């Protein structure tokens, strides 16, 4: 994933606070926003070097793009990035398209949820039909199951109409396609007897094509594959199942954002669940699991330990944990990890979204400029 890497800023001029030259690309549609560039405000970093590993700066975004998040590989080889702007949601959420040397708008004017008046794209993935699907986190705006699974109709590589395919999630988060099924984590799928719940849900492409699927909140809806319970600790966070992916054998893995538990879901060939288990990991204790991706060539899981500003690697063959990169509190300058939330592996380059929206007792202490994307060379 990483032969060459360039720091790129997307404003139209070289600003005094910038650390690299800026390139600008013209939006392909007239409704696109101004290009993001270096933020003109800066927070004071308390850490200036990585204690483990060597993440590098890939892109810097401006304050209108303040919480980069979901990442997916597009058919043309570029990467689609979601920017929900949850640190400052007075700025509209957008989707962006990036390479190692460019970052430009992909889709703006995302449809808002009617009651919250906000759009909130999180993880995203292209389906077998060639369309782009993204999960939505309306939980920041309403606790009343207002989140959705959205579909962007893509024609000749260009995004078009955006439509709801599933509603009534609490906090839809990760999305993964496997065959003609899409798996989605809901980090706040509470039940009537469990207010610390989360879940993995599954939908077929065929049913999504029939019309909007209306989930039944606080129930074992037929689409629920399995559920989890978060053990709330000193962070006070009860978000559960977050990142999601599957290994070379088709087994799924997720982790709890609130307590760091790492789960394996053993699957039958038909996609139904055989068993769910909390894995006993060897080595470092992981306190938080945000986004993750599995290299199915090696069966290594790369996951974001958002709480500790770290990227952890779990060898799924023996459940050992190693730390690929970690640093203390920082503003993200020079690509240091600034509350990593999502990862994407392309070749031997690991792309990292620095979400920079901390919770209590996180290493990251405040949301501040610059807003960054990092990249790490892996072996």
From TrEMBL:
SUPFAM superfamilies named in the record: NHL repeat (SSF101898)
Coiled-coil residue windows: none
Residue ranges, annotated region (Disordered): 20-46
Alphabetical UniProt keywords: Signal
Cited Gene3D superfamilies: TolB, C-terminal domain
Domain of life of the source: Bacteria
Signal sequence extent: 1-22
Compositional bias per record (Low complexity), positions renumbered to this chain: 20-31
PROSITE patterns for the chain: PROKAR_LIPOPROTEIN
InterPro entries noted in UniProt: 6-blade_b-propeller_TolB-like, SMP-30/CGR1_Lactonase
PANTHER family: LACTONASE DRP35 (PTHR47572:SF4), LIPOPROTEIN-RELATED (PTHR47572)
Identification of the protein by name: SMP-30/Gluconolactonase/LRE-like region domain-containing protein
Naturally occurring in which organism (per UniProt): Hymenobacter tibetensis
